[in-house]
Amino acid sequence: MNTIVTLIVALLRVFLPALVKASKPARNVELRDRLRRRVRWTWPLVLVVVCLLSGCATRTIYIPDGTPVRLRMTVRDVKVWVLDKQGQPVPGRMDLPEGWYVLPDDGLVAQGGGDGRSQ
Fold first, then answer.
1. Cα(39)–Cα(33) distance, rounded to whole angstroms?
2. Which residues are paired to 69 by β-bridges?
3. Going by fewer Cβ within 10 Å, which terminus of the chain is more open, N or C?
4. Residue 9 burial (10 A CB sphere; 0-12, 13-18, 19+)
5. What is the pTM of this model?
6. Rounded to whole angstroms, how far apart are CA atoms 52 and 64?
């Protein structure tokens, strides 16, 4: 998105001064009014197209609850529950490597009961 904004700003900086320099006062009132009407109807269409195209880069996929997912890239400094020597859950942090499968928390570990695995 940032590159698109930069590109638009660069194009405006190049073409806007040339357009201002090339524009002359309209002597033909009828032509001026016709062009203004055309721009007035074209401008909302351009805004709609820009709004529609701005959302093309994002995609949301719904994953049902309880479904494992495989990580495509390493996720750093993730808050996890780990078991200590007595088998009690304690909070911890770790990096989840690319390719690992992750599952949602069933709630047993956070409550201090169970070993965190589904029954």
1. 10
2. 102
3. C
4. exposed
5. 0.38
6. 28
- Mind listing the pLDDT tens digit of every residue in the chain (119 residues)? 788 888 888 888 888 887 777 776 657 888 888 888 887 777 777 888 777 777 666 667 788 888 899 999 999 999 988 889 998 889 999 999 999 998 877 665 555 554 544 43
CB 91, CB 79: distance < 8 Å: yes
Residue 58: alpha-carbon gap to chain centroid:
5
**Structure-token match 């009828």, residue found:** 30
